[in-house]
């Protein structure tokens, strides 16, 4: 039987990044992916003939530039299509707001609602950039362990402290961003509800929370941290869909010698005397390895693929208590024409179609949508963030037709006993989202050729994410940095020797960043 240097469980984009770096360092690597396709939540699926859909994640900005360079991903086919404008918000009163990244256009647009806010936005963005300058380098660093007295840890803590000191009075703002709610920050900077509501939707993506709740400021910030082809804060579509990024990483990994198998579901992590020795597949076959690296979330890795009795009790309990709350549902659609918005007419792709279309007029609308979900019911009026990648990418839909992603909230993972069946709720929810879009673009309903609904329970079933949590675990401060996935184990190692984590369950968390996989590879190679 072949013994591998490392077996990676899961061919999500992070697992593939780890595989590529390990293979590049000369390690014999095997990746085992349960589904028939690679990429995990960064996939392109041809749901209907000619319609190539990014069924889970749909826009990119966070993916680390150092990985693009190291793995020569552009040579392997990775290409970004930056979006401008980046967002379009139609309002019920017939007005609309286009934003970013074109600064003059954004200034003009915001001035329609408030001159003061138009002046404030560049200053607000500059403040976020200063905080990003402090936080961004930490994304590709292993978090220091504050409970360890090892010199390396103490030095890393000191460096972090010094970097924080450099922030000066922005330090207080950084702490508010890491711990606070989005609303007070938005209220301090802006006066127009239209501007605040448009920005606030970024504060709740993937969170089972509203912008008035602590922790949402970081979600807001997380979404401004990336870059697109070197330009900070710009989001774009991956040409060919998100799966094209995963395929490019896989191609780089294979070129370096990594072996990658799909349709290979890992049933068990094999251990002996507290050391990982390999894995067993669902079909009973076993593979041996010096190191086993899991790109799957912590709950599945430790409680489903292992007997938790093999773990220290306190560690197993911490994993049991991780927060996987989620209220996000994805609706993927095939369209015969683009939405022709009453407030900005056009039946060919225009500025209103290229970025994210926000259907969320006020922050109170978000609070009301959440009220339903917190008692186990789907929102009466969900928040819809729609994107039409085929407005920029002619490879993902038949000529003259379009794919649309609707990222929506809130659809609770656990429905109330009186809420009806999952399928009934999915149908009702999707029809309501289509109705909401039709209120702004009367041709929308007739343009829908087909749609797929992924409720949190589907996201769990299809992508293997506990609770349907899109980030492999909540991104609140108590689950970030040196506490991700649990305190004392943020260095990608686990209580089992030779068993590592490399997915979004680890620092710096969810999003198509590749940083978790990159950091994990560095730590694994450090161990020999
Ligand atoms: C609906 C949705 C929308 C999102 N939108 C965005 C977005 O637009 N932009 C963004 O940056 N981020 C977005 N995210 C978040 C982002 O996609 C994820 O955080 C990220 O892709 C996680 O990558 P990963 O490699 O760590 O894990 P995953 O992608 O979860 O990969 C884990 C892999 O392990 C496999 N697996 C599970 N169990 C087993 C097993 N037993 N054996 C073998 N393989 C197994 C899974 O099939 C999967 O391929 C979204 C996520 C979702 C779900």
Task: Give a verbal description of the structure.
This protein has 528 residues and is of the alpha/beta class. The chain has 18 helices and 20 strands. Helix 1 runs parallel beside helix 18, helix 3 packs across helix 4 and helix 6 crosses helix 9. The protein is globular. The mean pLDDT is 95. The site of flavin-adenine dinucleotide (FAD) has 39 residues, from helix 1 and helix 17. Flavin-adenine dinucleotide binds next to helix 1 and helix 17.
User: Number of DSSP helices?
Assistant: 18
Strand content: 15-25%
CA-atom Rg in angstroms: 22 Å
Task: Name every ligand kind in the structure.
Answer: flavin-adenine dinucleotide
**Major beta-sheet overview:** 7 strands, mixed
Query: What is the number of strand segments?
Result: 20
Please state the average pLDDT score. 95
Distinctive features:
single chain, 528 residues, alpha/beta, seven-stranded mixed beta sheet, 18 helices, 36% helix, globular, binds flavin-adenine dinucleotide
Summary, kept brief:
The protein is α/β, with parallel strands linked by helices.
List the topology elements.
Blueprint: E1 3-9, H1 13-24, E2 29-32, E3 45-48, E4 51-53, H2 65-70, E5 80-82, E6 87-90, E7 96-99, H3 103-111, H4 115-139, H5 151-166, H6 170-179, H7 182-189, H8 193-200, H9 216-222, E8 227-228, E9 231-232, E10 236-238, H10 242-255, E11 259-261, E12 266-272, E13 275-281, E14 286-294, H11 298-304, H12 313-320, E15 328-335, H13 351-354, E16 356-359, H14 363-374, E17 383-387, E18 402-409, H15 422-440, H16 444-447, E19 448-454, H17 456-463, E20 499-501, H18 515-526
Parallel strand pairs: 1-2, 1-14, 2-11, 6-16, 14-20
Antiparallel strand pairs: 3-4, 5-10, 6-7, 8-9, 12-13, 13-14, 15-18, 15-19, 16-17, 17-18
Helix pairs in contact: 1-10, 1-18, 3-4, 6-9
Bound molecules: flavin-adenine dinucleotide (FAD).
């Amino acid at each position: 039987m072949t013994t591998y240097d490392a077996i990676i469980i899961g061919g999500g984009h992070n697992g593939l990044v780890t595989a590529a770096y390990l293979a590049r360092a000369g390690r014999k690597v095997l990746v085992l992916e349960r589904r028939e396709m690679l990429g995990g939540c960064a996939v392109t699926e041809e749901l209907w003939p000619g319609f190539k859909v990014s069924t889970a994640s749909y826009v990119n900005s966070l993916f680390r530039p150092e990985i693009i360079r190291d793995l020569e991903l552009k040579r392997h086919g990775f290409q970004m299509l930056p979006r401008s404008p980046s967002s379009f918000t139609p309002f019920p009163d017939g007005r609309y707001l286009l934003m970013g990244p074109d600064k003059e256009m954004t200034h003009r647009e915001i001035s329609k609602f408030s001159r003061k806010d138009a002046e404030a936005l560049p200053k607000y963005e500059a403040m976020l950039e200063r905080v990003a300058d402090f936080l961004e380098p930490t994304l590709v660093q292993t978090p220091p362990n504050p409970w360890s007295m090892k010199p390396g840890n103490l030095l890393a803590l000191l460096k972090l402290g010094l970097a924080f000191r450099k922030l000066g009075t922005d330090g207080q703002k950084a702490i508010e961003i890491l711990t606070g709610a989005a609303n007070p920050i938005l209220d301090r900077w802006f006066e127009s509800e239209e501007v605040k509501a448009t920005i606030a939707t970024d504060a709740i993506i993937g969170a089972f929370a509203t912008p008035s709740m602590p922790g949402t400021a970081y979600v807001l910030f997380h979404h401004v941290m990336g870059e697109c082809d070197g330009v900070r804060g710009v989001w774009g579509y991956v040409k060919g869909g998100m799966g094209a990024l995963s395929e490019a990483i896989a191609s780089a990994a294979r070129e370096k010698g990594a072996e990658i198998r799909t349709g290979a579901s890992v049933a068990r992590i094999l251990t002996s005397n507290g050391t990982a020795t390999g894995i067993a597949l669902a079909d009973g076959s076993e593979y041996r390895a010096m190191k086993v690296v899991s790109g799957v979330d912590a709950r599945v890795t430790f409680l489903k693929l292992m007997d938790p009795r093999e773990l220290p009790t306190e560690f197993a309990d911490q994993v049991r208590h991780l927060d996987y709350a989620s209220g996000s549902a994805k609706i993927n659609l095939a369209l015969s024409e683009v939405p022709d918005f009453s407030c900005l007419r056009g039946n060919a792709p225009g500025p209103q179609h290229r970025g994210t279309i926000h259907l969320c007029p006020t922050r109170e609308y978000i609070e009301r949508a959440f009220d339903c979900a917190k008692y186990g019911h789907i929102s009466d009026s969900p928040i819809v963030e729609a994107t039409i990648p085929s407005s920029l990418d002619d490879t993902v839909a038949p000529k003259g037709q379009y794919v649309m992603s609707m990222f929506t909230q809130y659809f609770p993972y656990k429905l109330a006993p009186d809420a009806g069946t999952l399928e009934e709720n999915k149908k009702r929810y999707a029809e309501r989202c289509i109705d909401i879009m039709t209120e702004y673009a009367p041709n929308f309903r007739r343009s829908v050729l087909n749609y797929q609904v992924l409720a949190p329970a589907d996201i769990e079933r299809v992508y293997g994410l506990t609770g349907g949590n899109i980030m492999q675990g909540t991104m609140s401060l108590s689950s970030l940095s040196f506490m991700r996935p649990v305190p004392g184990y943020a260095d990608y190692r686990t209580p089992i020797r030779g068993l590592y984590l490399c997915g979004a369950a680890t620092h710096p968390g969810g999003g198509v960043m590749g940083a978790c996989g990159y950091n994990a590879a560095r730590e694994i190679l450090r161990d020999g």
